[in-house]
Write a structure and sequence with these properties.
CATH topology of the largest domain: Rossmann fold
Strand content: 5-15%
Helix content: 40-55%
Structural class: alpha/beta
Low-confidence stretches: none
Number of strands: 11
Largest sheet: 7 strands, mixed
Bound molecules: S-adenosylmethionine
Mean pLDDT: 95
Distance between the termini: 63 Å
């Protein structure tokens, strides 16, 4: 593969916006904006920029270590060295990838000494937190909660690129039919085991521009995430509350499982997410969703009203760092501690919206028991007289290839 200068310039700029500017931005937002403002690039060029930027975010610590660079001493021109050295390291780390043949002799790459970088890289590969590129505090926290072995396996798996998984919208099509429709437009997919609506893309490609996406035949949703709505055991005609609905990934799945019958009240504290949810509902042909911005009055109004309640609570996202690798660098221990308080408050306060006999699912996309299992154990210890614990499930990136989700189902007596 040959390296094209405009693509490296765009990658350097994107990385500076993620790591270097005064108000750094999220990697996915930066990449989206970079690609949007350069519509002339073809699909290979776009893939190069997106993949290279994500890879560097993913292996940030390993790359800095290999270059003897320190985050607090970075200067803007070093980002060229970072990109160039990554392309050298990548050849060692992923020899079968479509790698560059040789770094071009550009001035900006003139400080790069490949042999030195690779020696230091080999040293870094012996230290987990450098090899897997995680900050010290996060490595310590995850070892303390999961143990060395489990954490080592999960973080290694989460440094691989995530597959693109679709969920067939059963209000408009099904897994088999969608596979045939996509096949006919040269989008090849695989049917994963045990997921009745999921299809996995064989090759990464843009699917948002297809007519099938525009017509709501599918949504993009990780396989682990597709297990959560069925865990709530909904039936057509029920009254369901999705209390942390966001832009509605799980509300839409619930609506499909309920065959568009009954009522789903999708709540959140962020109005713009609910606006996006309604747009997606329209595309999906869903008309049993109503959105509600949360305030104390809403909680009172819906007290003891729901047959089913989904609490897909805000969390660290440590189970989905494969998709959002920059959260490794943006999360802080204080932020996670605050989230745990919010999660506990949501669990204890919002559960009042469930009817007696109703079922509730508490879900996170975190690997940490302190954001997941421990809340449920504490909840059952404090309120167990009014609740029955029906079961829980955890998905593993290392073992199943799914994102790391946790879900527990409880029934109100
Ligand atoms: C994990 S995300 C939800 C993802 C969504 N269910 C989906 O499937 O696309 C958690 C959501 O909780 C919302 N949130 C944060 N604090 C909240 C609170 N106190 N009450 C309700 N929702 C809250 C966030 O705005 C965010 O949209």
């Amino acid at each position: 593969m040959r390296l094209h200068r405009p693509l490296v310039i765009a990658t350097v700029k994107a990385l500076q916006e993620i790591f270097f500017v005064k108000n750094p931005r999220q990697a996915d937002k930066v990449i989206e904006q970079t690609l949007k403002s350069n519509k002339q690039w073809g699909s290979r060029d776009r893939a190069f920029i997106a993949e290279t930027t994500y890879e560097i975010v993913r292996y940030w610590r390993l790359i800095l270590f290999s270059n003897n660079l320190y985050e607090d001493k970075l200067k803007a021109p070093y980002f060229w060295q970072i990109v160039g050295s990554w392309l050298i390291i990548k050849k060692r780390l992923y020899p079968n990838a479509d790698n560059i043949d040789l770094l071009p002799k550009w001035d900006e790459f003139s400080h790069i000494q490949a042999a030195k970088i690779l020696d230091r890289f080999e040293e870094g590969m012996l230290i987990r937190k450098v090899r897997e590129s995680v900050p010290d505090w996060l490595d310590q926290l995850c070892v303390a909660e999961l143990g060395e072995e489990k954490w080592g396996e999960e973080i290694m798996a989460m440094n691989e690129q995530a597959p693109v998984v679709l969920r067939a919208n059963t209000l408009k099509t099904n897994q088999d039919k969608l596979q045939d429709l996509l096949d006919a437009i040269e989008i090849e997919t695989i049917v994963p085991e045990g997921l009745p609506d999921a299809l996995v893309l064989k090759q990464r490609q843009s699917i948002f521009r297809t007519d099938y996406f525009r017509q709501g035949f599918f949504e993009v949703q990780d396989a682990g995430s597709q297990l959560i709505a069925p865990f709530l055991d909904v039936q057509p005609g029920m009254r369901v509350i999705d209390a942390c609905a966001g832009a509605g990934g799980k509300s839409l799945h619930l609506a499909a499982l309920m065959e568009n019958k009954g009522k789903i009240v999708s709540m959140d504290i962020e109005e713009y997410k609910l606006v996006e949810l309604m747009k997606r509902a329209k595309r999906n042909g869903v008309d049993n969703i109503e959105v509600k911005l949360i305030d104390p009055k809403v909680l009172k109004k819906y007290e003891a009203s729901a047959d089913r309640l989904l609490l897909d609570v805000p969390c660290s996202g440590l189970g989905v760092i494969r998709r959002n690798p920059d959260s490794k660098w943006k999360l802080t221990p204080e932020f996670i501690d605050n989230l745990k308080v919010t999660q506990w408050n949501i669990l204890t306060e919002y559960s009042a919206m469930l009817k007696s006999g109703g079922k509730m699912v508490f879900a996170t996309c975190s690997l940490l028991p302190s954001e997941s299992e421990n809340h449920i154990k504490r909840f059952m210890a404090e309120f167990g007289e009014q609740w029955e614990f029906l079961g829980e499930r955890r998905t593993s990136t290392a073992k199943e290839g799914y994102d790391g989700f946790y879900m527990a189902c409880l029934q109100k007596k």
